[in-house]
């Protein structure tokens, strides 16, 4: 298993969309994908997929207040999606609110700059008289709705239009007898996506058990990124005691295929330890699936100058590598940190 997977179907039927969503997949452009990890501002996070059971859902008092306020003052239309100049202008306004890269236009965001849409996409459109002030897009399955993107004009900030459009999607999905509403992922420790949990009670997809569980049962210390840090931290502590050089490296390229090398030859985790000396560098990974450490040598083509020190959003220094890394040989694997350290010591003749 890999931690990021992508499928490029020619068409997505409604039942097929339901199946993808129920297995923790989501839409990006004109593909379906799933991932365990995300990198923001030179920092690694876990992606947690959530959904809402509409059969037991009840709008909170605050939700009903937002729905009433917008629907009393403006006109809301739910219909098959229409992509036009109005939506493009709204997207341009929305895009200005974000730092970092975001698709240049709506066509790139939803269609990968193509013309074909493989999904059954609908929209919530909110008008102030003839002026489009908010729009959201969602894909419709047989018994599921997946919220894709919400746009709103900043002139109407007091109406919470971005959140309103999610509530309107839920309201429509319930009226159509849908069972599940999928708002995508949240990112524990990165507040930008927390608004998705405001829709009410949700479940999360457990990546190991491959099942949906109540969100209240989510334990932060069991997240993939926390497990990686903890296990690599065990090795790092032992190496520090021995005064052996080691650095924790953020590796966003972990899910990229490097031609012509196989997955076995590549570094497959977004965090690893760079160990040893410049003339004898080694890599220690922790395999989350097999729950064991992997100790490998570098390919002779590896250049240590590709490792750079960056400052993340919290002001902490992070060593990163955006260059594809290839392993030369797998020298040892073991479930215990002390044993993997012994393997490194042996190779270094320390």
Description:
The chain has helices at residues 14-22, 61-73, 85-95, 106-111, 161-175, 224-241, 337-348; strands at 4-7, 26-28, 31-35, 37-40, 43-46, 48-53, 75-80, 121-128, 131-140, 144-152, 180-186, 203-206, 211-214, 246-250, 271-277, 280-287, 292-298, 307-311, 317-321, 327-334. A hairpin with a 2-residue loop joins strand 2 and strand 3 (31-35). The protein has seven helices and 20 strands. Helix 2 packs across helix 5 and helix 6 (224-241) crosses helix 7. The protein is elongated, with a radius of gyration of 23 Å. The protein starts with a strand and ends with a helix. Strands 7-8-9-10-11-6-12-13 form an eight-stranded mixed sheet, with helices on both faces. Strands 18-19-14-15-16-17-20 form a seven-stranded mixed sheet, with helices on one face. A three-stranded antiparallel sheet has the order 1-3-2, with no helix packed on it. The chain is α+β, with helices and mostly antiparallel strands and 350 residues long.
Strand adjacency order, main sheet: 7-8-9-10-11-6-12-13
- The average pLDDT value, as a whole number, equals 92
The poorly predicted ranges are none
Total E-strand runs? 20
Q: Helix content range of the residues, please?
A: 10-25%
Our count of helices gives 7
Shape: elongated
End-to-end separation in angstroms reads 35 Å
Q: How many strands, what sense, and barrel or not for the largest sheet?
A: 8 strands, mixed
Question: What would you call the structural class?
Answer: alpha+beta
Radius of gyration: 23 Å
């Amino acid at each position: 298993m890999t931690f990021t997977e992508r499928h490029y179907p020619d068409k997505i039927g409604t039942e097929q969309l339901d199946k993808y969503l129920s297995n923790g997949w989501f839409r990006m452009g004109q593909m379906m994908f799933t991932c365990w990890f995300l990198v923001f501002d030179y920092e690694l996070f876990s992606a947690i997929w959530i959904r809402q059971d509409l059969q037991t859902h009840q709008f909170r008092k605050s939700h009903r207040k937002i729905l009433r306020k917008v629907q009393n003052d403006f006109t809301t239309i739910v219909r098959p999606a229409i992509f036009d100049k109005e939506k493009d202008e709204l997207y341009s306004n929305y895009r200005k609110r974000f730092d970092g890269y975001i698709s240049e236009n709506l066509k790139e965001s939803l269609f990968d700059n193509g013309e074909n849409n493989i999904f059954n996409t609908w929209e919530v459109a909110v008008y102030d008289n003839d002026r489009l002030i908010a729009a959201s897009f969602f894909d419709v399955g047989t018994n599921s709705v997946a919220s894709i993107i919400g746009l709103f004009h900043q002139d109407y900030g007091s109406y919470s239009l971005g959140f309103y459009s999610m509530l309107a999607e839920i309201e429509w999905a319930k009226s159509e007898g849908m069972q599940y509403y999928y708002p995508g992922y949240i990112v524990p420790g990165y507040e930008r996506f927390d608004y998705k949990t405001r829709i009410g009670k949700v479940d999360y997809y457990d990546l190991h058990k491959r099942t949906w569980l109540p969100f209240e049962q989510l334990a932060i210390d069991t997240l993939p990124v926390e497990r990686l840090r903890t296990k690599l931290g065990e090795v790092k502590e032992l190496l520090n005691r021995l005064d052996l050089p080691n650095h924790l490296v953020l590796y966003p390229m972990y899910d990229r295929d490097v031609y012509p090398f196989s997955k076995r030859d590549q570094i497959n985790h977004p965090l690893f330890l760079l160990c040893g000396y410049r003339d004898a560098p080694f890599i220690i990974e922790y395999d989350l699936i097999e729950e064991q450490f992997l100790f490998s040598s570098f390919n002779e083509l590896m250049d240590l100058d590709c490792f750079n020190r960056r400052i993340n959003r919290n002001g902490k220094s992070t060593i990163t590598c955006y260059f594809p890394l290839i392993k030369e040989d797998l020298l040892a694997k073991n479930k215990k940190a002390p044993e993997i350290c012994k393997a490194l010591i042996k190779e270094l003749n320390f």
